[in-house]
Amino acid sequence: MIVIENESEGLKKSIFEFFRMKLPKSYKKLDLNLKIDVHNDFLFIDIFGEKINKSTKLDIKNEKPHFIIKRYLFDLFSNYEYFDSSFGILTGVRPLKLLSKIFKSYTYEDSIRILFDKYRINKAEGDFLYRIYKNQEKVRENSNLNYYNVYVHIPFCPSRCLYCSFDTTIKNKEKIDVYTKNLIYDIKNYNLDFSEFPNSIYIGGGTPTAIGKENLEKIIDAVLEKFGRTQEFTVECGRIDSLSIEILEMLKSKGVNRISLNPQSFNEEVIGKLNRVSNKDFSYWFYKAREIGFDVINMDLIMGLPGESKESILNSIKKAIEYSPENITLHTLALKNGSKLFENSYFNEEDYNSLIEESKSLMLASTYEPYYLYRQKKSVISSENIGYAKKRSSSIYNIVMMEELENIIGFGLGASTKILDFQGKFKRSINSKNLEDFLKRR
Predict the structure, then answer these.
(1) Cβ–Cβ contacts within 10 Å for residue 361, how many?
(2) Top-confidence residue, 17 or 170
């Protein structure tokens, strides 16, 4: 058991999170007591427990105490078995949001040195993060605190995948019709404080195409009427069992220029155990979307699904590359509260040694560049999720949303609206996550 003594609940939570992410397989078994006393210019940290008894005074030099403490703990515990050194002492979702300030202010060489000295991020990871930063450069330079983007959430799917923890509902015609009506009302009655067109529009879920052509078209028409056209318009088509030629043609006619077709894995045995439709018809729908004229197609893969070996995951990545979509997003399976895998206490015993590095090598050798990255807790392999793109096809929405560069207006169940102030800080509001409340409120 890990016991942390300090007056600040935030500091205690931050230090505990460090142990949980750095020693994911053994933190629950650790017998540790940490007493931390923070003063103006220095702090004391006492650590005692099985095989350890140390007392240390650390200077505070214009740095937040939790960074100093984590750096000390990183050096102290880095030789423990199964210690995860990835991303050094950083445990947050958006590492580049912090590190971009360093990349912007210093030379590459100085940035790499600072990343290790301050955050214990090694050179290989520093190089990769810097590469993502440079691939975001054009979007970053063109971003503005007055720009906004629109997100619309549609929480319906043909079925619920075992790994899914999102606010999704098996498609129900009556509920879909009411949801569509209420969603359109919210869109039409939103008090828009921005005079320009949105930088991007993103309709996600769930599986937006699962609600059928008629309802989806009504929602898109309401969005276009309210906000006008945009340079990037994404609709997640996710599951091929939600598609029809009519839906794809409608999306194209409405100006949608980016869609997601997500196989998650090309291992049919794995897919068959996830409560998800087979990918045997994936080629038909991918090339039909190409024929209809979609310029940018994204494909999602999840690494670490039940039954996946390292070899089968790499084979799925190679298969995705063969299709040559403009974007490929590689996720690592995260065991989120609410998913069937979490409820069933799924534990992955596969050997994924060096998988992340091999997946990166495959992508970089195939003309794909990493353009955004975020991290998830409770991942079975590594915490990183990486979006790759071919040249000039990076998603604006993914970058500005993940790096929090522009305003986001969110509609629908559980969607977030984030409005920036002139200091670059967000005022955030989150819609209700209760579907029945959303359906019954009017």
Answers:
(1) 12
(2) 17
